[in-house]
Specification:
Layout lengths: L2 E2 L2 H21 L5 E7 L3 H16 L3 E7 L5 H13 L5 E4 L9 H5 L13 H8 L9 H13 L7 E5 L6 H10 L3 E5 L6 H5 L4 E4 L17 E4 L3 E5 L2 E5 L4 H5 L4 E2 L6 H26 L1
Parallel strand pairs: 1-11, 2-3, 2-4, 5-6, 5-7, 7-8, 8-11
Antiparallel strand pairs: 9-10
The structure holds nicotinamide-adenine-dinucleotide.
Nicotinamide-adenine-dinucleotide (NAD) binds next to helix 10.
Organism: Acetobacter estunensis
Pathway: One-carbon metabolism; tetrahydrofolate interconversion
Subunit structure: Homodimer.
Length: 291
């Protein structure tokens, strides 16, 4: 049987460390601040935003949440972002995705000050990651996956990594991080001819497709480390439950280690958001010192 990678426990340890570092910064007169912007009332987004706000407050950071109506204009949203860019109490800005269809996502993401872009979706941060520079902001979910992987595989160099899914939020940045750590990386997606055959080659299998139970036991090479990013709501007989993209019991028979859903990657995503916010706040202080 596979070792269960307890993301919840790792995230708690990270969060405790972050809370101590926040206290140190606050003693120096700087309270790290995170602004979360939600446009519309998508139920999943509302839950994620509430959870982010709660965790931000729990580590002693300054937390601001802007909830805007669905019919907010792009111009009004951009004006808010510019105000947050200029707000010295705010070190991190997160615009919850997806945005309503009348708003151009890229225009909004690229309006965020790259130094405050704690989601790492600004094109400058995307570019830095793509060329292997380490001074940008790294997207929270892939960063969380990386931190979990490192606990089981001290060196990723030369490993064969397969990523299922190539979204800008998870799959692509994940593949770039793995490449930057020396993995041989295969990215698979809906047009891939035989995803299972690719997956079977993997020492490291990252699954971010949004398809419940996609990865079966026979897709996994014995001894592989499997990271399940998927969050799928299933309406079962006992009410709704959350499952990943991996058929957990089958895959646990083959894998060396596997993340559960819930309690795996999800908690790590928020911990990494706090980590990025702390980093953004620390960078402003060092800048202030040298000025
Ligand atoms: P997305 O829909 O934007 O992208 C899905 C990707 O998977 C696409 O590239 C698509 O081509 C590929 N794909 C879909 N079905 C496939 C299949 N059958 N075979 C191969 N490739 C397939 O989704 P996303 O935003 O990247 O999120 C993916 C999943 O991860 C979702 O379940 C989402 O809820 C979850 N997620 C979790 C966290 C977290 O914190 N744990 C964060 C973000 C997303």
């Amino acid at each position: 049987g596979a070792v269960m990678i307890n993301g919840k426990a790792v995230a708690e340890m990270m969060t405790n460390t972050i809370a101590r570092e926040v206290a140190t910064l606050r003693a120096q007169g700087i309270t790290p601040g995170l602004a979360v912007v939600l446009v519309g009332d998508d139920p999943a987004s509302t839950i994620y935003v509430r959870s982010k706000v709660r965790k931000t407050e729990a580590v002693g950071m300054h937390s601001v949440c802007h909830r805007l109506p669905t019919d907010t204009t792009q111009q009004a949203l951009l004006a808010l972002i510019h105000a947050l860019n200029d707000d010295r109490a705010i070190h991190g800005i997160l615009v919850q995705l997806p945005l309503p269809p009348h708003i151009q996502r890229d225009a909004v993401l690229d309006a965020i000050d790259p130094a405050k872009d704690v989601d790492g979706f600004h094109i400058l941060n995307v570019g830095k990651l793509a060329v292997g520079r380490t001074d940008g902001m790294i997207p929270c979910t892939p960063m969380g996956c990386m931190l979990l992987l490192r606990r089981f595989l001290p060196s990723l160099s030369g490993r064969h990594a397969v990523v299922i899914g190539c979204s800008n939020i998870v799959g692509r940045p994940m593949a770039r991080l793995l490449l930057n750590e020396g993995c041989t990386v295969v990215i698979t997606h809906l047009q891939t001819r035989d995803v299972a055959a690719e997956a079977r080659q993997a020492d490291i299998l990252i699954v971010a497709a949004g398809h419940a139970g996609l990865v079966r036991g026979d897709w996994v090479k014995p001894g592989a480390v499997v990271i399940d990013v998927g969050i799928n709501r299933i309406d079962g007989t006992n009410g709704p439950t959350i499952v990943g993209d991996v058929a957990f019991d089958e895959v646990a028979d083959h894998a060396r280690a596997i993340t559960p859903v819930p309690g795996g990657v999800g908690p790590m995503t928020i911990a990494c958001l706090l980590q990025n916010t702390l980093r953004a706040a620390s960078m402003t202080t060092s800048k202030d010192v040298t000025l």
